[in-house]
Design brief:
Elements (H helix, E strand, L loop, with lengths): L1 E5 L4 E2 H7 L4 H10 L1 E4 L2 E2 L5 E2 L4 E5 L18 E4 L3 E6 L16 H11 L7 E2 L8 E7 L2 H7 L4 E9 L5 E5 L2 E3 L7 E3 L7 E9 L2 E8 L6 H8 L21 E9 L6 E5 L13
Parallel strand pairs: 10-17
Antiparallel strand pairs: 1-6, 2-5, 3-4, 3-6, 7-8, 8-10, 9-10, 11-16, 11-17, 12-15, 13-14, 15-16, 17-18
């Protein structure tokens, strides 16, 4: 994989690469198994670059984990380029393998897609969803791209919650793992900071809300909505409602600045059929 970067100020190539958030570890790997070019000519990090120069970073090839088994399961691609692959995850598919569900994970389906397309790169999970949550999942095609994506994504979900939510709200409650469980989370003063905001779109026997995550704790939306007395429909871990076959939660939209081109990108995943009767958006 190659990345082209435009120089705007005179400096050492080493300094320029550091300003692009290329870590010393990544730079060492690039020098060992990749290449650095300035205007098409190989250079060392001690070279000087000037405005107008084009720096090409040839990223080293990566090998996927031996535990990943490419899966030919169905894959809905919402967006793809040389750096990213963004897909619409169905409910009932794990983002990554687990002890209970060791194969046919989403990452293994993406790996099979990469091999079929002869894509240079391996899938690195940027955003992940619970097995029974549907919607947008982002994969980077190299570790460096994954690093560049950290913390720059605006995530918006759609959910259906029990009861009648206020018109809007902010839930600022720390979250930690429940002591006697390896899965369940709770709100607690000694937990990690967690902030969720929401806008209620519909209210009838239940409420439909547009939810924005400001932090990324495990089960954050599910735990926060339980904490305010409105657990999600179908969420039997944090509530009692069984009107849907799974928690009524869908990762609807992501917005971010592309890590290579800096172009603002917004990707949406339509509400799946199994939730349209409770989230009629």
């Amino acid at each position: 994989m190659k990345i082209e970067l435009q120089v705007t100020d005179p400096m050492l190539l080493r300094t320029f690469l550091a300003e692009q958030a290329i870590s010393k570890k990544s730079l060492s790997a690039i020098k060992r198994n990749g290449a650095l070019l300035v205007n098409g000519i190989r250079q060392t990090v001690r070279a000087n670059v000037v405005p107008g120069d084009v720096v090409t970073v040839v990223l080293p090839a990566e090998t996927p984990s031996a535990s990943l088994v490419p899966s030919e399961g169905p894959l809905e691609i919402l967006y793809e380029d040389d750096a990213l692959c963004i897909v619409n995850k169905p409910a009932g598919v794990s983002t990554m393998p687990s002890q209970l569900h060791p194969h046919d994970s989403l990452v293994e389906r993406v790996l099979a897609h990469f091999r079929e397309q002869r894509t240079a790169g391996i899938p690195h999970i940027v955003t992940r969803l619970d097995r029974q949550t549907s919607g947008v999942v982002i994969f980077a095609k190299h570790q460096l791209i994954h690093h560049w994506m950290t913390g720059i994504i605006d995530k918006v979900y759609l959910c259906a919650a029990t009861g009648r939510l206020p018109a809007r709200g902010r839930i600022d409650l720390p979250i930690r793992r429940k002591s006697e469980s390896i899965i369940e989370r709770i709100t607690a003063p000694d937990g990690k900071p967690a902030l969720t905001s929401y806008l209620t779109l519909l209210r009838s026997e239940h409420s439909v809300a547009l939810v924005r995550l400001h932090t990324g704790r495990t089960h954050q939306i599910r735990v926060h909505f339980k904490a305010i007395g409105h657990p999600l429909l179908g969420d039997t871990l944090y509530g009692t409602d069984q009107s849907t076959g799974r928690q009524a939660l869908h990762a609807f939209q992501v917005t971010f600045s592309h890590p290579v081109t800096a172009r603002l990108i917004t990707i949406q995943a339509p509400v799946p059929h199994d939730l349209r009767f409770v989230i009629p958006i």
